[in-house]
Design brief:
- The structure is a single chain.
- This protein is of the alpha+beta class.
- The protein contains 9 helices and 17 strands.
- The chain has a 7-stranded antiparallel β-sheet, with no helix packed on it. Strands 11-17-16-15-14-13-12 form a 7-stranded antiparallel β-sheet. A 3-stranded antiparallel β-sheet has the order 6-7-8, with no helix packed on it.
- It starts with 20 loop residues before the first helix and ends in a 15-residue tail after the last helix.
Length: 379
Amino acid sequence: MTDTADPDDDFGLPAWVYSDPRFFAAERDRILAPSWQVVCHLNDIPQAGDFHTFEFLGESVVMVRGHDGIPGAFSNVCLHRGATLVDGPTGRCGHFVCPYHAWAYDLEGRLIGVPMRETYRDLHLHERRLPVIEVEVFKGFIFVRLEGSGPSVAEMMAPYADELEPYCFEALRRAGRVTLQSWRVNWKTIGDNYSDGLHITMAHPGLNRLFGRDHGFEATAWVDKMWGRLRNEPSTNLSERAYQVLLPDVNHLPAARRRLWSYYKLWPNIAFDVYPDQVDFMQWIPVSPTKTLIREIAYVLPDDRREMKAARYLNWRINRRVNVEDTDLVTRVQQGMTSRRFEPGPLSETEVCLRQFARRLRVLIPEARLPHLPDGWSR
C-alpha cells in the first residue's frame, strides 16, 4: 500500500495501549465486537444437530447445523433465567433443553417448550427465539460477528481468493482438536509479532534454514500476507531436513505453490497458515488487557500416503519450536512495554503490515495517537 503523509505512520503504537483497561474496553466496542471470528468448519458439523460452542468477549455462542442443512449461530443463553444452554465445545442434539428449568429450543433457535406453560402470562411461545448471531461461510470455514457492520469475510479476503482456491478449503477435515493456550500478553502483541517479517532471520533459526532469504510480506486493506519458499539445500536440523525430503508432491496445487508456506492474517486477530500438507487457523482471543487465549487447530485433505503423514508430523514439530520462540518474543515485548522510559521506535518502510495495523487502529480509536495515558484514564 502507499503510505500517507501522517507522521504517526513512521512509529509503532504507544506502550500504554498494550496494558490500559480503558483502552481495552474501547477495543472491545470499536474493534473486536464488530469483527469476524472463525468458529469451525462446515465439515465439523456435518449433520443436523451437530454443534460447536465459541466464547468471545464474555459472550457464549452456539453454532449448529439446522434441519435445513444451514449452519446457524445463536446466543447460548436461555431466555428464561439466563442459564447457559449448552456445555462443552462440541456435541449433537435434536433440540436444546436448558438444564435449569427445561425450556426447550429447536435447531433454529425457536422456543418450542416450556414446563407449566399455562402459568406464564403473555408468554407468546412461538414468537420467542434465541438471539441470532450473524454468520458467514468462507471457503468452508464458518465465521460469526457479534455486532456491527462492515465488509464480509469474502470481501476482506478477495485479494487472495484466487490463490487460495487450489487448496480445496471446502474439503478440509480437522486433524485433532482445538487447543487453547493462555498467554500473559496483550492481544496486539501477538498480532504484531505474527505480522513482523523482519524478526525471522534473527529469532527463528529453523525458518531461516528452511527459507533462507526467500520470504516476504505485504499488506492489503484487511489482510497481511507473509510467505516463505522451501530451499533445496538440506537443513542441518534433522526434522527440517526430513520434511524437505519427505514432503510429497501435492498435484492439485500449482507447481509454484508445492513448496510454499503462506500466512494470512485477517483483521484483527485471525490467521490462516497455509502449507502444501495442511491448513491451520489461529486466533488470539483477548481476555483482559494483559491476557490472551491462543485458539488453534489443523485441517487436512484426505491423504493416506506415508510420506504425507510423516510430513504433517514434521510440520508440527517444526512449528512447535517456532511457537516456543514466539512465546519468548512476545513475553519480552510485553514486559518491555511496562517501562516508563520506552517510546515506540521508528518503523522501517518495509514494515508495511505493522504500519497498516497501527493506522487502522488509530482511525478507530484516536486516543492511540497520544504518546501517554490520557488525562482522566486510569490503569
